[in-house]
Amino acid sequence: MFDLGSKEALTKEEEEEEEEEEEELFQEARKESLSHIPLEFKRNIYKILCSYFFVKLLF
């Protein structure tokens, strides 16, 4: 009646699709969570961190 091999393959495909959808939703949520931070503020933080590590590298 039923082929268990094809049923397992189908469930694996469904699991993969669900994992991909969850990952996409996670990425979207992550982008939205950071979108409220002003771009200027992000740039300043980046500059400070780069300067800090550059100085650490020299000394």
Radius of gyration: 23 Å
Helical/strand content category:
mainly alpha
Shape: elongated
Distance between the termini: 73 Å
Largest sheet: none
Helix content: over 70%
Order of helices and strands: HH
Instruction: Please state roughly what percent of the residues sit in beta strands, choosing from under 5%, 5-15%, 15-25%, 25-35%, 35-45% or over 45%.
Output: under 5%
Quick one: how many beta strands? 0
The average pLDDT score comes to: 80
Unreliable residue runs: none
Short description, anyone?
The protein has 2 helices and no strands. It has about 60 residues and is mostly helical.
Describe the 3D structure.
- The chain is mainly alpha-helical and 59 residues long.
- It has one domain.
- The chain is 88% helix and 0% strand.
- It contains two helices and no strands.
- The protein is elongated.
Structure characteristics:
59 residues; mainly alpha; 2 helices; elongated
Q: Layout of helices and strands, plus pairs?
A:
Elements: H1 4-35, H2 39-58
